[in-house]
Design goal:
alpha+beta; 9 helices; Glutaredoxin
Length: 203
């Protein structure tokens, strides 16, 4: 795990995308009708275009309460969030703008986005129920040089919706995925905010 941690930090600090760089990447791919990753399909390119629009909307509409802002500002140690993602990932579009906002509020928190399919050796150490589910946030305590926590691919509330649907119907349908996006829109990022607060060393 020590070697893996060094690789996560190196990737996060030197080879990852900042949020602004990731937004440019996704926007450019959306314009070209392409996506990140080795597989290029019409579906993945359409998801990339959808996510580009969604992130643009989240960037404009996301709101944090004064209480949440104060909690985030109380973090006085360096935290590195390395997030595995891909441009086509529907669950990343509401999550990444929230993470970015945390870093804007407190520069002690830094965000670096790396692509899952280029970093499977990292992804495979942070599976969700055996799957390579993304986005996956790996929170590194820089001072202690440890993985302090992980999060993803969804908030606790969204995860419950997914698990309940799977247990009843066996798999996620396109209709459910649409319903999940409606949940994200109604929730306005608040469930993700609350989950991420629990990852932080708050005062």
């Amino acid at each position: 795990m020590e070697l893996l941690l060094e690789d996560i930090k190196a990737k996060g600090l030197n080879n990852g995308y900042s949020y602004a760089e990731y937004r440019v990447l996704v926007s450019d791919l959306a314009e070209k009708g392409a996506s990140t990753g080795p597989e290029q399909t019409e579906a993945l390119s359409q998801y990339t275009q959808l996510n580009n629009s969604r992130m643009r909307r989240w960037d404009k509409t996301l709101k944090f309460t004064d209480e949440v802002v104060d909690k985030i500002k109380s973090v006085d140690q360096k935290v590195l969030w390395v997030v595995l993602s891909e441009s086509w990932c529907g669950d990343a579009s509401p999550a990444l703008p929230v993470m970015h906002k945390f870093t804007e509020i407190n520069p002690n928190i830094s965000l670096s986005i790396i692509l899952r399919d280029e970093n499977l050796h990292i992804m495979d150490q942070f599976l969700t129920n055996g799957g390579r589910s993304i986005p996956k946030l790996i929170a590194v305590d820089v001072k202690e040089n440890t993985v302090a926590a992980t999060w993803g691919p969804r908030s606790e509330k969204a995860t419950k919706l997914v698990e309940d649907y799977k247990s009843e119907y066996g798999k996620l349908t396109p209709e459910f995925k649409q319903d999940l996006q409606i949940f994200y829109n109604k929730d306005k990022g608040q469930s993700i905010i609350q989950d991420l607060l629990e990852l932080l060393p708050l005062k």
